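Wed. Picked up where I left off yesterday with E2 ubiquitin-conjugating enzyme. The coffee machine is broken again, so keeping this brief.
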Amino acid sequence: MSLSKRIIKARETERLIAEPVPGIETSPHEDNLRYFDVVISGPAQSPFEGGRFRLELFLPEDYPMAAPKVRFLTRIYHPNIDKLGRICLDILKDKWSPALQVRTVLLSIQALLSAPNPDDPLANDVAEHYKRDERGAIEMSQQWTREYAK
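Structure written out below (tokens, as returned):
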């Protein structure tokens, strides 16, 4: 398995473990250093507060020229995350830059939990709920957090 020089030289993976991002746990798979298990704690004052959300992160062969592949494994009621756990986030798509790092991606996902954006949805039904009845949608997000992320 060939690992990108950046992963080896910059020790991006070691840094994630040695200098963890508050509220984010990251552990690479021993048998595949491109694959990470991630747990993001729901940010305070968000509908996801108190939840622990499992994600998977994979660094493609052409990383850092291509964005990491990330998806939620824990069910979440969020307008920018669909039923399959895919995430609508610009830096995972057209705004990716090789200057960005895994920790930037994880911080951006954590920020997305604090600020759901129903105007750029991936889950249209959830986005409509947020637009039509924000209070009800937040309550549903809290309920799913209690049900699936505890």
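Quick read: The two ends are 36 Å apart (CA to CA).
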